[in-house]
Structures are given as C-alpha cells and as structure tokens.
Amino acid sequence: MTLPRDAGRRVLIIVRRLNMGGIQKASLSLASGLLAGGHEVHLLVLKGTPELTVPDGVHLHCVDFERASRRTPAGLARHLASRVLLKPLLPGSGFVWTGRTVSRGFRRHLAELEATHGAFDLIVIRGQGAFELLWDVRDPRCWQVVEGPVSGPGKSPLAGWLYRKLYAGKRVISVSEGIGAVLDATLARHGVAPAQRRTLTNPVPLGRIRELAQAPLPDAPPTPYLIHVGRLSSVKNQALLLRAFAAADLPLSLVIIGDGDRRQSLTRLCETLGIAERVHFLGQQTNPYPWVARAQAFVLSSRMEGLGLVLIEALALGTQCVATDVPGGIREVLTGEQARLIAEPSVEGLAEKLREAWTHPVTVDPAWAERFDEPRVAEAFLGLLGDARLENPADDGPTHAPA
After folding, report:
1. Vertex 8, ends 6 and 13: CA angle to 5°?
2. Tens digits of per-residue pLDDT, 366-387?
3. What is the rounded distance in angstroms from the CA atom of residue 275 to the CA atom of residue 268?
4. DSSP label at 328?
5. 179 in Cβ contact with 149 (< 8 Å)
6. Vertex 18: Cα angle to 16 and 19 (nearest 5)
7. Would the N or C end of the chain have less CB density within 10 A of its end CB?
C-alpha cells in the first residue's frame, strides 16, 4: 500500500539505547526517511543518555522504566526477588521479570503520549534488547525488528518458554531474508510461531554519506589501502582479517576504524604476524566515509551479519567489497559482479579474494545501493499499515513477505 504524501502518519520507534551502533544508526535513518515523507516521528530510548544526534523534528523521549519502578518499595521488592530468587532458579529468565515491570510502565507512558500527541499508527521496536524489555506489550500496532541471528536461551530446558515470551503471536520484521530464515528455523525447533514475519531492509542515508565522504582525509596511509569499519569484537572477527591480510601479501596497507575490547589482542596479533607497520588502527571515527571512499576495497570478516550496512555504505561510495560468506544478509547486498568477491570464511579463502580484488577489481555501480535508500525503506515500513491482519490480532497465521 502506498500512502498519499499528504497522509501524515504518527510513528513511534523504540530502541534500548541510542549509542554508536548499527541498530541505532538504522533507527535514526528510518526516522529521517519518515520525516522526509511528511510523517510525525517519535523516538523512545529505554536506557541511558543518547550519544547520537537525533534529526531535527523527531520527538525524543528518554524513559528508564526499570529504574523508575525501583523507586517505590513494591517495585524495589520485585526487583530484588527477581535477581536473588527467580533469575538463579530459572536461568536465562531475567528479562521476563524485568520486562513485565517495564512493559507495565511503557503502557502507562504510551497512554500519556497519545493523550498529548494523538494515537500512533505504527510502533517499531528495534533490536532484541528493546523487545526483551517490552516482551509483555501486545499491541497490534507493534512490529519487532530482528537485526541479527537471534540470540537467546539456546539449549536451556526453558528455551521454548522463553522464546514464546519474546516471539509467540508477535509481528516480526527481519532485516534480511537470511536472518529471517535463521529466525524461522530457531523458533520452529521450539514450536514457537510469530503472528507474522516480514522482511524489510534497514535504511541507509545515501545522500548524506556521499556528502560526508567529500571531507578531507586527515591521515591517509602512504600506500593504497584496504579498509575495515566495525566494532573490535569476536563477532566481527578482525583476527581472521589480519591473518588473511598477512597471507595475501599484497603491496597494500590495512586501515581499521572502530574500537572495542579486542584492540590490544589484535595489536599483538599484528606484531606476531609481522604486519604491524602496515596495519593502522584509527579508533572510532565520527566520519569514516572519506577513508571508505578512497580505499582499494572494503573488507568485512564477520562471523555473521544481520544485513551489512557498512557494505551498502561502501557501495554507495563506489568502493568494491570483499566479505565472508556467513549467515545473514551478505548475499542480499553483494549481488551481481560483486558476488564474486564473497569469500569462504577461512584465512586462505579471504586471502584469495583480497588478491582478486587487487588484481581484478570490481567496478562498482553506486546504483546497487539505491534500493536501501532512506525514502524507499521508510515507504516500505508504512506499507505495514496496509496489512489487513494489523486490524485483526487474533489471526495468528505466519506471513512471510519480501521487502
């Protein structure tokens, strides 16, 4: 369903925190795309102080419902009982007791917001951290966005019960078909069925990224370079990247932008591999795009990816991408000729594709990124309003629809 441009809608986007990360960036991009379409956008942050700048025109609300509940004697007693008794007795269930309290506070706050601003047409809860806190909210306007391979109780004997709390009867969006397939399989193993499951990609502000990429490059390496942007963590698997870079033995430097708890161990690995002088750790950068735009290739070595926003950003800047073939949305982003630089997730597999990117580079068509642009994805989210099942929460038949 395509809404008339003057049919302004009221949308509430909910995140657990608003710090530097893919979920947060995608949430702000969705807000920007909706604003550009003439819609009223509210953003609710459930924890902490926002670290990112919210677009002008977005109504920002920061409410820590969990902390607020502990200010009353009854709330503090419930909190202590859940931590001291229930959580140890029922491993993995901590979010159940916290989420029940938070959900109650959210419902009260939602009523207050709607009394002031009017009813919301759509409520989007982004990331598992947020819908763990709001698992007891059952509103037919709510859609939960799964950003990566579902984490949860795994092989716990309580797994089925816990997954039911999070997903049973809920309306769920996966950011890629790959992530949707993983979610479907996980829930099916535990006999859990969401009311619906749709696939809608994350939005990317392509115009803004191209504008930011024009900024001067303050610390360019002395030779052509590869680039990686991401949190320094086990899931991003920079150790594999460093080993493959050493094995590829190319006349290139490697620039790594990002910070995290693996910084020291990765620095030591560079010394062990004898590549310390060719690897440049630049830490977190507010604007990484000048480096991305001028790189020989963007390299992603993750163990899993929800969609791969950084790949879309690189393509938008005309930079070819090398990425490991892992669960998630990699093959949905790197299509056509770009698919030949998808690597087996091993040292030699990634090293081989690094050599290929150097000797037989892909000529990137920036239009490959256009399907992820903010306005297109925002319109797709508003298409949820045209789903007749939204008006009938009792209809629990699962629906899978592509973006």
Report:
1. 150
2. 889 999 999 999 999 999 986 5
3. 10
4. B
5. yes
6. 120
7. N
